[in-house]
Design goal:
Length: 165
């Protein structure tokens, strides 16, 4: 049902569409409606760095890109760890796409990069993402009070992590 591959230039429009959707920018610490010029610069700068990756998730039957994830390895002395974030198109949430993408991120980190730990930050009210992370045995490492300013007020977040084999 899903195919996961690395980012290519044709994906920029999709990226801009997804990051302009309220559930996506509000839950991933971004401002609304990123311009395509800025986004292109951000993507180029991100991918130019060593061990920084962007993956795209395609719905095979619909021949459509429906999600993306970024993952980057941390620098020494934290080089056993990587940080990641991901978004699924609002029209395609709740059909297992996030599950498939997270499964691949864990597999890639463990079996291709030989990493020992995945870390992330998630708003405390993002129940859907937190449930998904817990399903894959991520645990909460700590609460960050007033992590970001969203819709006129400060919002708390959790640090979460998964130790890999
Ligand atoms: C969070 C997100 C990545 C999940 O992806 P998804 O494709 O919608 O989720 P899936 O269909 O793969 O569901 C995976 C799990 O999420 C949890 N989940 C799904 N819908 C949920 C809901 N409405 N409430 C609580 N948990 C829910 C469940 O644990 C589910 O597993 P299950 O079906 O075995 O019970 C996606 O909704 C998204 O992009 N949200 C906006 C951006 C975001 O929050 N990114 C993460 C920031 S840290």
């Amino acid at each position: 049902m899903f195919k996961i591959r690395e980012y290519c230039d044709d994906d920029l429009n999709h990226l801009q569409k997804v990051l302009s959707q309220p559930s996506n920018y509000q839950q991933t610490f971004q401002l609304p409606a990123p311009s395509s010029i800025k986004l292109k610069q951000q993507v180029s700068a991100f991918l130019a760095r060593e061990n920084h990756f962007i993956f795209m998730l395609e719905h095979i039957d619909h021949k459509k890109v429906i999600g993306r994830a970024n993952l980057y390895c941390l620098e020494p002395p934290r080089h056993h760890s990587a940080r990641f974030g991901f978004n699924i198109d609002e029209d395609y949430q709740n059909i297992g796409a996030g599950n498939a993408l997270l499964e691949e991120l864990i597999n890639f980190s463990q079996n291709k990069l030989n990493l020992k730990k995945l870390v992330l930050t998630v708003y405390t009210d993002n129940n859907k993402a937190i449930n998904l992370y817990k399903k894959f045995n991520f645990r909460e490492d700590g609460l960050i009070r007033k992590f970001a300013f969203r819709d006129g007020k400060y919002v708390d977040a959790y640090h979460m992590s998964l130790e890999l084999n």
